[in-house]
Design brief:
CATH class of the largest domain: Mainly Alpha
Distance between the termini: 92 Å
Strand content: under 5%
Strand order of the largest sheet: 1-2
Radius of gyration: 35 Å
Mean pLDDT: 79
Structural class: mainly alpha
Order of helices and strands: EEHHHHHHH
Number of strands: 2
Helix content: 55-70%
CATH architecture of the largest domain: Orthogonal Bundle
Number of domains: 2
Largest sheet: 2 strands, antiparallel
Low-confidence stretches: 1-19
CATH topology of the largest domain: Rna Polymerase Sigma Factor, Chain: A
Shape: elongated
Length: 190
Amino acid sequence: MSIIFDNSLKTHHLSQVCDLAITDLKKLFQSHQRELQIYLTRLLRDADTAMDLTQETFLRVSEHASPDKANKVTHVRSYLYRVAHNLAIDHVRAQKRNPIAGANDIPLDVIPNNSPSPEQIVGGQSELEYVRRALDELPDKTREIFTLVRIDGLTYREAAEQLGISDSSVQKHVARAIAHVMKRMREGRS
């Protein structure tokens, strides 16, 4: 049994339940590829994805129509649309799970480059050297407190407990260290 083509109505009718043969798939593709692609484009609002899913639809139908499978299709056009619709749903779900997947299509020159320029790197290294020198000029206790709070991330209270001094003493040492470093930084820039 085979698919009967009625070109005047541009639809396929089945005289009876049929097996899809490989030769019929070519006719099926030629008859329905354009309309399925338009349907998927409207559904997804993306012509490229619609084209891919249209081809995937016919691939799935061809797998279903292989001679080693005993599956029967009674309404081929409806079946095509159901496969296409299901593929579109799967695609949308995959996009929601992995929104970055489509990022491969973005040209790299459009993506802003936020990495520092060589000049900025050298400038940053120079500033870091000024900070190191300024810290080396501090009294040992002030440098130690500054390092605990600003570099190691301890709170004033934690640094005070560790060193056995008051919170206010820690605050004063940190303030002194910051003032000294800022002064040296200004001097270095002038």
